[in-house]
Sequence to fold (308 residues):
Amino acid sequence: MRNSPFDHRPLWDLGKALREVLEAGDDRAFVARVMAEVRVLDLRLRRGDWWEVLGTWARPGLVAAAALVALAVGLTLATAPAAPVQPATAEEALRAETEASVLTVASTPPDVGFILAAFPER
Amino acid sequence: MSVKESVLATRAKAGDQEAFGELVERYAGQARRVARAVLGDPDDGDDAAQDAFLSALRHLHRYDENRPFGPWLMRIVANAAADRRRRRKVRAADELSESTVGGGPGPDVETDRRAFREAFREALAGLPERQRMAVTLFDVEGYSHAEIAEILGIPQGTVRSDVFHARRRLRTALTSWQHHWKEEVV
Fold:
């Protein structure tokens, strides 16, 4: 890499010319200006300390609360007993005890004989 | 990195304004030059440099005292200047045609120092932003390629290439004034 045109050392003349056009003048005035802002910022931070602290806690707090709520809902749903499905009509009750579930999707009405067969003969 | 700088940074972290002031004093010139290299305008440059120092103060807790303070701060300066430039978008310096690079008045037209500065400033303004930062950090501020890569968040090879191309274009502008320049510095 030593002979590469990209492997160079600082050029004093170019650096000097650049510095000359970039020099902004009196640094002391600039430093004073920055430090005045620093004091204002510091004062603001001191005044707002509590809000800063609360602010830093707000987001993790919300996330933790949301996670707890989600966990509680999940547990409730997982442990709750499933509600028994009550048959709504006599016909549904009959179907539930036979293999007639296919009738639920049939487009024709159920056969009367099928219904009667569900009752034992006496 | 001098030990004192790390001590100053530690004290500044603990809320010591005087220590932070010392760091501002040390890096004021550098920060202003780098910001000005990006923005062109000295007032904008100072505003960006000030933003950078205040941002550095707010984020001092992220600074690792085992590493040099300069590159850490210069990264903030470069970002602050680039942000400001993006916000304002239009600056006269950015609108300069690339044809002005290497051009400008020749030594036979104007030979005074002011004209030279103006021509060189235009040549600098005609460079892409990243090249301006790279060549300023390398040739003016003396940062290494590795440090500049860290500051600008780009690979070292890209820094080398940027410095090379920036120099080549600035050299053209400089050469036309070389005669005058030598008279000034010798």
User: Anything to note?
Assistant: Residues 107-186 of chain B form a domain with the Arc Repressor Mutant, subunit A fold (CATH 1.10.10.10). Chain B touches chain A at residues 15, 17, 20-21, 24-25, 28-29, 32-33, 36-37, 42, 45-46, 49-50, 53-54, 57-58, 117, 120-121, 124, 135-136, 138-140, 142, 157, 160-161, 163-164, 167, 170-171, 174, 181, 185 (CB under 8 Å). DSSP finds nine helices and no strands in chain B. Residues 91-107 of chain B have pLDDT under 50 and may be disordered.
